[in-house]
Design brief:
Layout lengths: L2 H25 L6 E5 L6 H17 L3 E5 L6 H9 L6 E6 L1 H9 L11 E17 L7 H11 L4 E4 L5 H13 L4 E4 L3 H9 L5 E5 L4 H6 L2 E6 L25 E9 L4 H16 L1 H9 L12 H22 L4
Parallel strand pairs: 1-2, 1-3, 5-6
Antiparallel strand pairs: 3-9, 4-7, 4-8, 4-9
Amino acid sequence: MSFGKLTALLAAGCLAASAGVALAQTNGYPSRPITMIVPFAAGGPTDVVARIVGDHMSKTLGQQVIIENVTGAGGTTGATRAKRAANDGYTVIMGHMGTHAAAVPLYPNLAYDPVTDFEPVGVAAGTPILILAKKDYPAKDLSEFVKHVKANSGTLNMAHAGVGSVSYTTCLLLNSILDVKPTDVPFKGTGPALNALMGNQVDYMCDQIVNVVSQVQGGTIRAYAIATDSRNPALPDVPTTKEAGLPEYKVSAWNAIFAPKGTPKPVVDKLSDALDKALSDEATRKRLLELGSDLPEGDRRGQQALASLVKSEVERWSKVIKAAGPGN
């Protein structure tokens, strides 16, 4: 037998052995709790979706899904940690439009590639965006809000959860459309930013509906419009941006689960199946819908749908952010 053939046989044997070990590991998966990284502070919209979905996934998987909040750099600190985690299925991340799309053009030295460094598990929820302001903001509707912001942007403060966050990018788009440059005030998460808005420490922000239904209903903040085609059942009195006179502002965020690159396919399949069961569960759906979430249905679910979404969203937000020119 030639040396080349012997080397090939040994290599094939090693591959077969590795595949056998991987199969043995995945057959017993999961055998311990799973950590789901949330790259923002507790209490924010991504955290809320993660806890609701993770609760049901725990039942399906037979192991607890533990939420770990890892804040910083608009969610990219947590995403970087997830990228570097062991690809054994015991660490996943609840990413979103900011961490896995808008961060690409915003952070030139981003430590990960959303397309190539993760295994997509599936979309958990879509989250429509609202234009919000402190409760005593001097504008009765969106038209007056737009006029006031244009006339006073130099003295106004806009809250957000950090560069790269959904609250930052969606308000960046709004400010670009209005051609205004308020002072942007970053917080370590949407929860703290919302608290500042309710405390009249900042003037306005853009936020996901999941985070603000009770506050809008209770009158502690004002909602001028929702940036979708139709009104949301959770806040039926809030007009769409088209109805309110700003049709060009149309945007919705999303939350989705990712595993580190190289996580075995059978493990990713189990995670995806658990997510699918959570989104089909009546009680889980009710909790998410009451918060205003847009739940993925049909071909919008699953691994391939998320992979396609990430690619298209990276392209979309790269164009938006380049046109908006943040920091200029």
